[in-house]
Amino acid sequence: MKDKTKEYLTHLEHERSMSPNTIKTYEFFLTEFAKFTEQKNLKLEDIDYKDIRSYMVMLQQKGNGKNSILTKIACVRSFLRYCVKKRYIEDNPAAVLITPKLERPLPSFLTEPEAEEFLKTPILALRDLAILDVFFSTGIRLSELTGISLGDIDWEQRLFRIFGKGSKERLVPYGEKTEGSLACYLQVRTRLIEKNPEEKALFINYKGERISGRQIERLFEKYNVVSDVEKSKPITPHSLRHSCASVLLNNGCGIREIQVLLGHESLATTEKYTHISPRELIETYKRANLRGDK
Hints:
Shape: elongated
CATH architecture of the largest domain: Orthogonal Bundle
Order of helices and strands: HHHHHHHEEEHHHHHH
Number of domains: 2
Helix content: 40-55%
CATH topology of the largest domain: hpI Integrase, Chain A
Strand content: under 5%
């Protein structure tokens, strides 16, 4: 099991291009499953669906919630599917299990007036305003924003070159208002990089280094405290991503366009962000007018 698990994780890294955090999660889940098989004296080829059910019962007894159990079983099922493909085992014993769907609560999001109100929050730094503006007007992920370098920006056409999940590249436009926020920030960025003039990151911290995801999360925590937006709606990079998608749809943007802009692989994921049925989404195909930008 240990050798096969290590091989599978290498496959995820090099062939599936999964992120380091995802691979660590898979490693943790599969290590937990391997310990279970060791306790039962089970070899890889001896595992059957009854053993998988026993594993689910054990997870429940240890206090794992339903979503946690389903996620771990999905990880085991994927690993065993890989073992079948490599002919280490004949059949996938987890394939015959019927499990309920994961409960996926919708993330909080802002209406367009609420988002505009949040962007009026007293800003202590021009950099922070630019960060908030980019999140809301583009809907990019936290990791995507921290990864933007100056060379990834087409200033003339107002485009970001974004590297999303699996290092997939896409172009994301931004509007005139965001351009203004960036221009103001870039005037003070030169002072921030005095300690590190070779830094190419767009957004940097007070040390002149590329800003981290955790530093941006703390930035949001700070502005949530002073914002006038209802406190039951905590503002995060993800909620602004969700807000961007909702505003785009409400202003006539097509589902395919939103899917491309957000970097989603499937329409089902985009549907979650837009609170509307797939049929209504596909029938909607007009240009959006986000925050007055065409």
